[in-house]
From TrEMBL:
Name this polypeptide is given: Lysozyme
Catalysed reaction, written as an equation: Hydrolysis of (1->4)-beta-linkages between N-acetylmuramic acid and N-acetyl-D-glucosamine residues in a peptidoglycan and between N-acetyl-D-glucosamine residues in chitodextrins
UniProt keyword annotations, A-Z: Antimicrobial, Bacteriolytic enzyme, Glycosidase, Host cytoplasm, Hydrolase
GO terms under biological process: cell wall macromolecule catabolic process; defense response to bacterium; killing of cells of another organism; peptidoglycan catabolic process
Keyword Cytoplasm attached: no
Top EC group: hydrolase
InterPro entries per UniProt: Bacteriophage_GH24, Endolysin_autolysin, Endolysin_T4_type, Glyco_hydro_24, Lysozyme-like_dom_sf, Lysozyme_dom_sf
HAMAP family: ENDOLYSIN_T4
Pfam families hit by this protein: Phage_lysozyme
Family under the similarity heading: Belongs to the glycosyl hydrolase 24 family.
Enzyme Commission code: 3.2.1.17
GO molecular function, one term: lysozyme activity
Length: 179
């Protein structure tokens, strides 16, 4: 597919006000993020017993210091699911707001998963959004795939885990493969 955007007309639909992450997309997001019912430090992955910047629980839910007492003992699987639904909703809205191109469900899911990882502000101003909206947009990248996969660093270092994640997201966006 050229630039990852050529999809048959029958599978591509304009974004609607209510398009949301599919069940398959949610499942892939949970596999990529992992589900942890006890608090951990997002940077190290180590379990924590007191709040630190980057304290995380569930499916990538950042814990505010003021909320630490509510999460310090851990959460149930159902609570993790509820947090995920709450945490994903702003990303769904952001994509509906900033993406003007027609998207298949798998493309929408890939963008939600990608944005969830890099953050709404970074996503909204990214070359990825510019190239999704206009494949001929002038950016520092040769293609949408290159722009997408450039988000592979944490604290300035290339991370193999992020390379793997970007590849999985790209397969979903470009080929509709949920794995």
């Amino acid at each position: 597919m050229a630039q990852g955007l050529s999809v048959t007309a029958s599978t591509q639909t304009p974004l609607t006000r209510n398009q949301v992450l599919s069940a398959r997309g949610r499942s892939l997001l949970k596999r990529l993020e992992g589900v942890r019912l006890k608090p951990y430090d997002d940077q190290t992955g180590l379990a924590i017993t007191q709040w630190v910047a980057g304290a995380t629980i569930g499916v990538g839910h950042l814990i505010d210091q003021a909320d630490w007492s509510a999460f310090s003992a851990g959460i149930s699987q159902q609570q993790a699911e509820t947090l995920l639904a709450q945490d994903v909703a702003p990303y769904e809205r952001e994509i509906r707001k900033v993406v003007s191109a027609s998207l298949s469900q798998s493309e929408f899911d890939a963008l939600v998963i990608f944005a969830f990882n890099i953050g709404r502000r970074a996503f909204s101003g990214s070359s990825v959004v510019r190239l999704v909206n206009n494949p001929k947009a002038s950016t520092g990248y040769a293609s949408l795939e290159t722009a997408w996969k450039a988000w592979n660093k944490s604290q300035g270092k290339v991370m193999q885990g992020l390379n793997n994640r970007r590849s999985a997201e790209w397969r979903l966006f470009d080929q509709g493969v949920y794995q």
